[in-house]
Amino acid sequence: EIASCLVGSEMCIRDRSINSSGYASCDGTCTVASGYEAEATLELQQKDGSTWKTIKEWSDSGDVIRFNKAQFVARGYDYRLKLTTEVYDANGKFVEDDVTYSGVESH
Question: 66 pairs with which residues across the strands?
């Protein structure tokens, strides 16, 4: 496997007592082997009934990609992170892709 990706290891959703809002810290990392490059998208998803909906996303590219983002979230829902990665060789040819999910956090 060319890409090594980790998502949600530092994900937390916590209350802010001042305005009772939820603050989600969203983290994802992807490192690819030398000579390759990745395009990665980190999505913060909210569960609505039985469906997961993306409420915020961030994208980046490179051989080492680190996301450290934040987003306020609504009460009464479950949340998770989804990290999607596509890997390309030095000629720009697609090599592999991967989808990784964090655990679920409730707010």
Answer: 29
pLDDT at 63 over 60: yes
What is the distance between the alpha carbons of residues 81 and 57, in angstroms, rounded to a whole number? 10
How far apart (Å, rounded) are the C-alpha atoms in residues 100 and 83?
5
With a pLDDT cut of 70, the percent of the chain lying above it is 80
Q: Residues 64, 9, 77, 44: what is their CA dihedral angle, to the nearest 10 degrees?
A: 0
**Tokens in use for 39?**
């395009």
Q: Which residues contact 54 (CB under 8 A, 6 or more apart)?
A: 43, 44, 45, 82
Q: What CA–CA distance (Å, rounded) separates 100 from 58?
A: 15
Kindly report the pTM of this predicted structure: 0.83
- Cα gap 79→95, rounded to integer Å: 30
Give the closest residue to 80 by CA, choosing from 58, 33, 47: 47
Query: Computed from CA positions of residues 24, 96, 37, 6, in that sequence, does the dihedral angle turn out positive or negative?
Result: positive
